[in-house]
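Marked as duplicate of an earlier ticket. Keeping the data here for the record.
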Amino acid sequence: MDWGMQNRLSSLFQKDGHCFFLPIDHGYFQGPTHCLEKPGETIKPLLNYCDALFVTRGVLRSCVDPIDSKPIILRVSGGTSMAGKDLANEILTTSIEEIIRLNVSAVGISVFIGSDYEKQTLKNLSKLVNKCENYGIPVMAVTAVGKEMEKREARYLALCCRIAAELGARVVKTYWCDKDFDKVVKGCPVPVVMAGGPKCETEKEVFEFVYDGMQNGSVGINLGRNVWQSPQPVAVAKALYAIIHKKADVKRAQEIFNEVVSSK
């Protein structure tokens, strides 16, 4: 592996091989998302627990301090919104020159397997990989499902992850599923990180699916709403960090959560 590629990946994945990515890119299709109206203020208390930020170039420039920043995964696909007909109709939004100028550690792009725009989004991924590999910049493919969350089952997710890896993604972000998630991971030859999906009802639900995913081969998480939309975001972040990097189980994660809450 080229030095630059290896160096960037090592900034994202810690020495234990695990990662806690914090996405704050939701505004690119949702607008001013609840609790993310002021992204810079939202992330400040959470930076001690995450390993990288997943963010668009606009929010990166306007809301993220460039001095001693966490590694950046730059969202480079978009062009649709919740008000439109189909979230899958995405394009590449950011040039390779801009990616290099912003000195990011990786880029992220959504692919919509099984949608009317499958070929288009896979072409976007292929083009991005072709350009980024020339400069040692890893590409993270996001196996998105748009509004059709019922697609989150192992056979479909395994298909998405494998195709993304085959086309050159260095990392794949996908959804956890409660059955056969290990088969999703085993079928993908590159690291798999878990997305958060819809906001959970309780923090314990979050701890449970993250712990299960880690036990079944995921290297970490790319979790946003279930962290910063929580009434206790710092407590959730600290507990998740313990699951990811300190091998904490659900019981210990809940204890950490309670300790942070009670210390306020």
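See parent ticket for discussion. The mean pLDDT is 95.
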